Every structure is written in C-alpha cells, then in structure tokens.
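Batch manifest, entry 17 of 40.
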Amino acid sequence: MWILRDTAPVLIQHPHINDLKQPPGSTVGLQKMNDVYWRMKIRHVNQLLTQECTTSNYSLFTHKNIELDTVLMEEAYIHTCEPSTSILNARAVFSGTSTKYVRCQEQYASITKIKERKYPFSLKYISGTTFLPETKVIRTAQEACQWLHAIDIVESRWD
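Output type: structure tokens
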C-alpha cells in the first residue's frame, strides 16, 4: 500500500498592493486536472489554508498569496475561510435576472474601496477538492461582494 503526500514547502504571503501588478491567474486545463501530483499539491495547500484561516484575520486567499517551492502559485485559485472552500478557474456569469446592485466595501493590502456589484449571478468554477466543474447561484449581497472581489483580485483587475 502506498500513501502519496505532498510535503512541498508552502509559504503564505501577506497581501501587498503590488500583487495586483502580477499577471492574472492562469486557467487550469485538463492536463493539470489529470495530474495526480498536482492534485496532491492543491489538496496540501487547501489543508494549510484551512489551518491559516483559524489563526489569521483574512477572509480569503488567492494564488497571489501562496508560494510553492519558492515560486508564486500561477493557477487561478481562491480559498475562502467562511465557509472553507477552495476553487479554481472562478468566473461570474450574469443573466437577465441579475438586476440588483450592492455597494461593497472591499479591502486588499492597505487599500479600501467602495465598489458597486451586480447580482444575483452564477459562480462557475472547478472544485479544489473534487476537481470537478460546479456551479453555485450567488443570491445574497454579501456573497456577491466576496466572490466578485476575489475574482477581480485573481484577474488583476481590482482597480
């Protein structure tokens, strides 16, 4: 019996305003999704971030906060603390029913902004635990603020 474990050193970096100058997260394709070692690495990151959520003031982490083997993570990755969720390739899909707006107070590093966000919408993503495509309908203003802010950070367009 073999047990595969990833012991790659993971460093969690504090958010810095220069993170937004980094390239957007890269879309994870089938080749990586089918790589058992890459999946182990993502699961290892998930576990460490779940632990970090209990000791930090952060509500979410993105690939811009994670260093694996001394290299910043490239994949479009989001980990929320409440509830503990890890996702890849997140995108918001708006429809004709997306008619409500909310003013969100968002913070990244030392910057706070008020952004107007539209909702409800469908959040489409790849689960960071099952690695299967999923869809979640975002109906509340609070969830809309959280997810749209995270997607903007991952895509380097939070301005």
